[in-house]
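Morning F.,

Quick status update on the modeling queue. The single chain you submitted on Monday has been processed. Sequence for confirmation:
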Amino acid sequence: MNPIQTYIEHSNLGATIKSDDVEILAKQAIEYEFVGICVPPYWVQKAKRDLENNPIALVTVIGFPLGYQRSEIKLVETEFALTDGATEIDVVMNISAFKTGVESWVKGELASLAKKIHQKNALLKVILETAYLSDEEIVRACKISEDAGADFVKTSTGFASAGASVHHIQLMRASVSVNVGIKASGGIKNLAQAKALIEAGADRLGTSSGIKIMDEAVF
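Structure tokens below.
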């Protein structure tokens, strides 16, 4: 396993995040050499300034947290995020449409987002929200996402009833090719969880507990 910090996207998507919190997040990411930070779209421009050209991914979320915004809105959100400096875009899949059975439509929406994101040399991560899906649905959602051009599939927003689990990471890893990364997020609070998810196949960990995990890793 690579050093734990190379997996961590240091995240703060809380409703009350403030300017100072963004600055602290960036400083901590630089200090601990995390792979990225994840902030709400409103704070992308500030986060870019705070990262000071350090080689740290700047991640934001689109269609968050429920995914059922119109495609046109997601595309406009994405355009602003990319212009503001985001290098990775985590998009919530339209779970409502997926559950309805219009999977070709879901794939089309994701493909249009992938095209826009890749034109800016950025990455697309698709948030499946696994807490709302059966195993069979997770497999289908993973395949749809890969076919649409996703660079990663991601477990959770952190706002659902449950977050990342070893079982779901294993299932997702088995459902996509080696060209697609797996991001675990939601409820990752300690080093033991982080290691278990990485061993199950996670390439990234989205967590607000990055500092605690690093402190545990030292001892």
